[in-house]
Every structure is written in C-alpha cells, then in structure tokens.
Design brief:
six-stranded parallel β-sheet; globular; alpha/beta; single chain
C-alpha cells in the first residue's frame, strides 16, 4: 500500500492497538484534530509500521509504550510521540506503577525515553509519573472514552416495560489450552514484578476469577430470561470472535461493533463485574450492576469491589439482589450510583479533568 505524503500539512498518525477498545477514542481525537490544518490518519497493528515507513508522520499518538510496542518506538526517528496510555482511571498507585513503569512481561522495560509527552486522565497519574520521571512532559487531558458530553447525575428514563439489559462480558480463559498457556507465560511473573496480580491475590486467583465470572454471567442471563421474558439482552463480548462466551444465543443480541456506543445508547442498565466500561456507562446515564461479590462473596476478590471505578456501582451479592435492582430500574427508582458522592468525585477527578463537561 502506498500512502501519499503531504508536503504542506503536518501529518498525524493515531495508533489503534485493540480495535474494540481503542477505535472510539481514536476517532474522537481524529475528529477534534480535523479542526486544525492537519492530515490525520488511524492505523492498526498490521498497518502502523508500513504507514510510519511510507507516510513519515510528524506526530504519533500511541497507546502503551511497553512490550513490542516499545521496540517499535525505539526504531522510529523524527516523529514527536504522544503516549496516551490505555487502562487509565485508577486511584491505586500500585496499579499506575504496573501500567506505566512495569508493563507487560517482556525482556525490556517500557520505552520511556521515546515518549515526548504523556497524555493522562488525571492529576494523580501525572504526579505519579513525574515522581518517577521528573524530566518528563505530562499533560492532563481527561478521558477520551466519554460517551456523553456532560457528566450524568441521574439515569436516563426507562420509557417502557421492556427493559434492555446490557451484559459486559469478561475475559474468556475457560478453554484449557488458553488457560494453560496463560499460566505458563505468567507463572514466574510475580517474582520479577511483585503484586502484578494483587487484586486477585495471585495468578491462580485471576484464572479462577475468569472461570467463575463466565459461569455466573451465563447463569444470570438464563435466569433473567426466565424472570423477565419480555426483556431485551445485549451481550458485548470482550473480543468480537468470542460469542461462545455465552452458552445460549436464543433471544440474545451480540454487540460486536468496534466501540461500545451502541451498547450504551440502547441499554437501560448494564451488568458487569469489574470492567471500566461499567463506570463509563454510568457517566453516560446508564446504571451499572457489579457481580464481583456474587462471583465470590469471600475476601479473595474484596479488592476488586473497592476499586475507584467499581465501588460506586450497584453491587449484587445474590440473584435476588439483581432482580431487586432490575425492578427498581423498571420503575425509574434506581439512582445512578449506590454511592453518588463517591461516583461524582471519581468521575470528575479521574475522568472529566475536574469538570462537568467533556472538553
């Protein structure tokens, strides 16, 4: 493929790592930059290197700069690199350290030296990066993954008795080979990078969580279809080739679009475990139920339910809790959050850059 090189305008290349996670914010950035005299393109894994080689961008907006992505950046000369790290929004400094300074298991550390400017969601992340990299350039921009221009303080009205329920599915590691390969890959990971699986206690806890999460989601869908036969259920699987995550496809709609806008616009309420998408739904006016405590009511996953983007969700510990929350939503009596003050604080501090409006 040959890319025409503009000699007049600055060329900006935006990298999409995971299509279903990164497409929406990348397109938002591309649209915002279209207001300026810039030539902006988006590239994925297979097209990024060819575009860098032939199109010669002046500016690259990248995601994480660790693993093989770090090696890519180490071989790029002459471009100004912004790193807009994915998986931001946490208030846990250990988590921030893992994401920005440890990265994925790889022979080399993240390529901090190749990042000209870090783009972060909030002041906590900025201060943590500056404490480790005092000479770095860090700008707070808020989250590009906002699906409503204004922070929503109340849920959208349910206008009929046919409730639309969104299911935010988790990682599928129930297949023996995928679970075994993951176990082999990360078996000694915590000896190299301590607390890598801290929220799950250890690697075994993470694999157990994923397996139980899939069981519970399937069980909940089956029971909701029995209890609310007129309801509409939309399941958004983590990757577009994982519709097998849900056992039954009867009367079930799958959202395999590149971004969650459809799920958010159609759902009256969503059910998740600990995905940040649940919190992003809330900020757009869609209440979210977390099933972390239903997956395991003991202390193993206690840390998951206290994450800043999980804690303000409505938590269900039993199937009856889920029914009660769905019934309240049908009657428009369910608030946007179980802890509204905390929800507003986290939304403003960690996603909206201390504003009510997405700018």
């Amino acid at each position: 493929m040959i890319y025409r090189v503009s000699q007049l305008r600055k060329r900006v290349l935006i990298y999409v790592d995971q299509k279903r996670r990164d497409t929406y914010p990348s397109k938002r950035i591309q649209k915002a930059l279209s207001n300026y005299d810039l030539d902006v393109k988006i590239a994925g894994k297979s097209t990024f290197i060819p575009m860098v080689s032939s199109w010669h961008p002046h500016i690259i907006i990248f995601g994480k700069h660790d693993g093989f992505h770090g090696d890519w950046l180490r071989n790029i000369i002459g471009a100004y690199v912004f790193s807009l790290g994915t998986e931001q929004g946490s208030s846990n400094v250990n988590y921030i350290d893992r994401v920005f300074f440890q990265g994925h298991a790889y022979p080399r550390l993240p390529a901090h030296e190749k990042v000209d400017c870090f783009l972060v969601y909030n002041e906590l992340t900025k201060s943590r990066i500056k404490s480790k990299l005092p000479n770095s350039n860090v700008n707070v921009i808020g989250s590009p993954r906002l699906y409503n221009k204004y922070l929503q303080y109340k849920p959208r009205l349910v206008e009929n008795k046919k409730l639309t329920i969104g299911i935010i599915c988790g990682e599928d590691k129930s297949n023996f080979n995928s679970a075994y390969n993951y176990f082999k890959k990360y078996f000694n990971h915590e000896q190299i990078l301590p607390k890598s699986f801290d929220d799950f206690n250890n690697l075994q806890g993470l694999l157990s969580f994923w397996f139980l999460e899939k069981i519970i989601f399937n069980f909940i869908i089956e029971k909701i279809q029995e209890e609310y036969p007129s309801s509409r259920i939309i399941a958004r699987v983590r990757y577009d080739n994982q519709s097998s995550y849900i056992n039954t496809h009867k009367d079930l709609e799958f959202d395999i679009s590149d971004d969650p806008s459809y799920l958010i616009s159609e759902s009256d309420i969503v059910i998740t475990s600990q995905s940040t998408l649940g919190y992003e739904c809330m900020m757009a006016g869609v209440p979210a139920i977390s099933i972390v405590k239903l997956i395991n009511p003991g202390v193993i996953y206690e840390k998951l339910s206290t994450r800043n983007y999980t804690k303000p969700l409505h938590h269900a510990e039993t199937l009856d809790d889920i029914y009660a929350l769905l019934n309240k939503r049908l009657e428009n009596k369910l608030d946007i959050s179980s802890d509204k003050d905390d929800y507003i604080r986290v939304a403003k501090d960690f996603f909206f850059n201390n504003l009510d409006e997405d700018k």
